[in-house]
Amino acid sequence: MTRAPLVLLPGLLCDAALWAPQVAALSDIAEPRVADLARDDDIGAMAARVLAEAPPRFALAGLSMGGYVSFEVMRRAPERVTHLALLDTSARPDTPERAQVRRDFIALARGGGFRGVTPRLLPQWVHASRMSDPDFVEAVTSMTLRVGRDAFIRQQTAILGRPDSRPGLSRIRVPTLVLCGRQDQATPVEVAREIAADIEGARLVVVEECGHLATLERPAEVSAAMRAWLST
Predict the structure, then answer these.
(1) Cα 19–25–30 angle (5° rounding)?
(2) Are 225 and 201 in contact (CB under 8 A)?
């Protein structure tokens, strides 16, 4: 059986660990590779790096910031993408209030308070039930510390400068999965519904009892949805 190339794009302060359950679960039907989105401070530069390192044709999945990069990949090289999965992400630009929160986080990190970032983000990122799971909290915290302060500043800068991706949604013409945790506070379900409504034939999956980091919070459900998506 020929396995399809699958490029996986992490979110803010996330690395390959974000996608580890899906890499394990889908390697029988796909050739997963996790891109490094920690080196650039511009969404366009991130997308260019992904395209330079990806095979000629590939399935593409992005979570949160990885979704923002996925939209840019689709603007630049739609002919190279066979399937698109958009997990816990938004096509909208930041509101002025949200942009200010990002700038405040950048200032905190630059001022020596980077270790205080993750404790503030975690309650917004994960379902309340997981906040009492010390192993889960430690795994996510360790991931953010591996990515580190400098990459966090670059990523937040890139996110602040991203374009509005909503005008391009109707031009997407590949099998598309839009997935969101029911309790995602960072990119709520209504934002996922907006994306799915504007992409012809997109399948919307809402994962119950789940926050923003769906791949880690509900790995079996996410992997099953992605398996079905890759099979279309």
Answers:
(1) 85
(2) no
Are 158 and 41 in contact by the 8 Å Cβ rule? The answer is: yes
At residue 90's C-alpha, the angle toward residues 48 and 109, to 5°, is 75
161, amino acid identity: G
Two tokens at 44?
């366009």
User: Would you say the C-alpha torsion 101, 184, 75, 36 has a positive or negative sign?
Assistant: positive
Q: How far is it, in rounded angstroms, from Cα 178 to Cα 111?
A: 37
Average pLDDT, the chain: 97
Task: Provide the pLDDT for residue 2.
Answer: 82
CA distance 25 to 95: 36
Fold entry, domain 4-94+159-230? Rossmann fold (3.40.50)
Q: Give domain limits for the chain.
A: 4-94+159-230
Mean pLDDT of 80-107: 97
Count of CB atoms within 10 A of residue 109's CB? 19
pLDDT digits (tens, 9 = 90+) for 148-199: 999 999 999 999 999 999 999 999 999 999 999 999 999 999 999 999 999 9
Mean pLDDT across the stretch 21-47?
Answer: 98
User: 220 and 205 in contact (C-beta within 8 Å)?
Assistant: no
All residues at 6 or more sequence positions from 94 whose CB lies less than 8 Å from its CB, including other chains: 102, 159, 160, 162
Rounded to two decimals, what is the model's pTM?
0.97
